[in-house]
Specification:
The protein is of the alpha+beta class and about 625 residues long. The protein has 13 helices and 30 strands. Strands 2-10-18-17-12-15-14 form a seven-stranded mixed beta sheet, with no helix packed on it. Strands 19, 20, 21, 24, 26 and 27 form a six-stranded mixed beta sheet that branches. Helix 10 runs antiparallel to helix 11. It is globular, with a radius of gyration of 32 Å. Mean pLDDT is about 90; it is low at about 1-30.
């Protein structure tokens, strides 16, 4: 018998090579001449979430991210060198300064299937429970050999049902022979119920072999999350404000904003937007609108530099410097909502939920609308007149509300990031510099070693419950201090009534000095009590959602202040984590991302989806 060298039979199952022709098994292939790319089918308009990369099948080199050439990746987040050091936050750096680091970051967050000459990505997919979608299975050959009888399959489970169109369905398994013309196959996916994150492989099977993977995708956790907004209008009080409010509401309805948010944008992250006053909008022709708009006096707002007439157009100023005033933010979203709430209270009504604020006038600057990533529980979207009918504006701004920064990194984004870092680790200036900012880590350390028992705070962010407890504890302690000093003062007055103020009552004080000290202590206690009572009034207006910011001056006992500083540190870490989790930043206008500018945005990256989904906790009671 002639010996046969079987060392180089690449792609053939050696166990089934019949050297002596005693077995009748067929050969089976375990390395294919093709691989499967899972891709979108056209047309796509944001009906579900889909994120992918394109790589060179031979080298794995990253070519594109969600269809955008890798060369457009301008910045990325580089992780800390010493992750256990709280002062090492990592940093956002230019891609050109560490190209390898940028590529490694992408590879960490996008899985690839690696076989020689057959490297392909595993896309991220997000669909809502009950939703059914179609994806393309693109057949990519790695050889000039013809496809003959290759068959692929995928198996569903209790969460997802799969069907390869025109294939064979057997229980939860669907399979189809790959066509010789290599045309893409269509895969239908239906979500049966809310599901955890899970990867699904597309398998090649050959007789007598163990199935092996030729493609796949990862389905994202997809429990539905809800946001509720009341739509209100902000109009001037002249010329029938109710009629003008009605016109703004009509534009909002006709633009079909809610349908777009729920089916072509925010749905990609599993969000459903509800309109709290939908009944009013549905019956706009006959509804009483008085509870759903605020009307301002033009003269009053002009004097306050909230409003101006530029040329022939009325404008609203987010910053007073836009209309010739000082560099001072008007915080129009908060201002309008507070005035609206005051109007409701005058009618013995209240509302403190989320709001979409439609405005009669355009911005004095170039702003079409805005919301905020911070505070984390910010629940207001202000839309100027220019953008009321622009659908993507609403998705873009609500995405900010849900924690997403822009997908680019320009001057404004750099300044915002610098501020987030400073809030944690300080600005690095000497303590003697009048621009020195210590950062919360330094404040915690200084407070721990301080001999002081009471600390003043201005604009501190923490849990509402902790702030309330701290304010009350200080009030109680200072009230006891006030009562003790008053009692001591009256005792000295009574005991030494026959003596002049110059009479020495102890080793260091005269009668007059002792009484003056008591009066001073009582005054300090009164001032602290009064400050905290005012702070409580302001705090009580804040919603019971997530962390809140106590803007007024307030005083806290050391033990309470340390608790509050600890929560502030956690809050600051969440804020900067959202920026860091948005770890890829592209050249402006180079993508089709909803968080880009000047593009027809239809999609989110999978990490953006995760940021948005995680942010729901900031709209729930802590």
């Amino acid at each position: 018998m002639k010996n046969i060298d079987i060392r180089n039979l690449a792609g053939i199952g050696v166990a089934d090579v019949d050297v002596y022709k005693t077995n009748k098994k067929k050969l089976f292939v375990f390395n294919t001449i093709y691989f499967i790319k899972v891709r979108l089918k056209n047309p796509y308009n944001g009906e579900f979430g889909f994120d992918w990369i394109d790589v060179d099948p031979s080298t794995g080199e990253i070519q594109k991210i969600q269809g955008v050439d890798f060369s457009n990746l301008e910045y990325f987040y580089k992780k800390p060198i010493t992750p256990n050091n709280p002062r090492d936050l990592g940093n956002i750096i230019q891609t050109t300064t560490d190209l390898t680091g940028a590529k490694n970051l992408v590879n960490e967050n996008y899985k690839t299937l690696v076989k020689p000459g057959q490297i392909t990505d595993v896309p991220w997919v997000f669909i809502k429970p009950g939703q059914e979608i179609e994806l393309a299975l693109e057949i990519n050959l790695t050889s000039t050999a013809a496809i003959t009888t290759e068959t692929i399959n995928i198996t569903g489970d209790d969460f997802y049902e799969f069907e390869i169109v025109d294939g064979i369905k057997n229980g939860k398994k669907t399979e189809k022979q790959i066509p010789a013309d290599k045309k893409p196959l269509t895969l239908k996916i239906k979500c049966l119920k809310a599901a955890p994150e899970k990867e699904y492989g597309i398998l090649q099977e050959s007789p007598g072999s163990t199935p092996f993977t030729v493609g796949g995708f990862k389905m994202m956790e997809n429990k539905i999350q809800k946001l509720k907004f009341r739509v209100i209008a902000n109009v001037s009080s002249d010329n029938s404000p109710a009629v003008k409010a009605k016109d703004l509401f009509q534009k909002f309805i006709q633009s079909d904003i809610v349908n777009y948010l729920n089916n072509n944008s925010l749905n990609q992250a599993g969000y459903e937007v509800e309109i709290e006053n939908q009944v009013m909008l549905d019956n706009l022709a006959t509804a009483d609108l008085d509870d759903f708009y605020y009307s301002f006096d033009k003269t009053d707002w002009t004097n306050k530099k909230y409003f101006a007439v530029v040329g022939s157009k009325g404008v609203l100023a987010e910053n007073q410097n836009e209309i010739g005033g000082p560099d001072k933010s008007n915080m129009l979203d908060n201002l309008i909502f507070e005035e609206y709430q005051k109007k409701l209270r005058g009618k013995s009504k209240t509302y403190d939920g989320g709001v979409i604020l439609l405005n009669e006038y355009q911005s004095a600057g170039n702003t079409g609308a805005y919301s905020r990533t911070s505070p984390l529980n910010h629940y207001k979207l202000l839309v100027f007149s220019t953008n009321i009918e622009d659908k993507i504006t609403y998705a873009h701004e609500i995405s900010h509300m849900l924690g997403l920064p822009h997908l680019f990194f320009k001057t404004a984004e750099e300044e915002s990031y610098k501020s987030a870092r400073t809030n944690i680790i300080g600005n690095g200036l000497p303590e003697s510099d009048n621009k020195y900012i210590p950062g919360v880590l330094k404040l915690i350390k200084d407070t721990q070693i301080s001999s002081s028992s009471i600390f003043a705070s201005l604009g501190i962010t923490a849990k509402k419950s902790s702030l309330t407890t701290g304010l009350n504890n200080l009030i109680s302690q200072q009230q006891r201090n006030y009562d003790d000093n008053k009692r001591d003062r009256e005792s000295i007055k009574s005991r030494y009534s026959a003596f002049p103020d110059s009479y020495k009552i102890n080793a260091t004080q005269t009668k007059g000095q002792y009484i003056a000290a008591c009066n001073s202590n009582m005054q300090i206690s009164e001032e602290r009590i009064e400050a905290n009572k005012k702070a409580k009034i302001k705090l009580n207006k804040e919603p019971n959602l997530g962390y809140v910011t106590l803007e007024p001056l307030a005083y806290f006992l050391k033990r309470d202040y340390l608790i509050i500083l600890g929560e502030n540190y956690l809050y600051r870490k969440i804020v900067i984590k959202q920026v860091h989790d948005n770890y890829l930043m592209f050249k402006q206008s180079s993508t089709q991302n909803i968080m880009d500018y000047y593009s027809n945005g239809t999609r989110y990256l999978h990490n953006q989806i995760k940021i948005m989904r995680d942010d729901i906790k900031n709209y729930l009671p802590l």
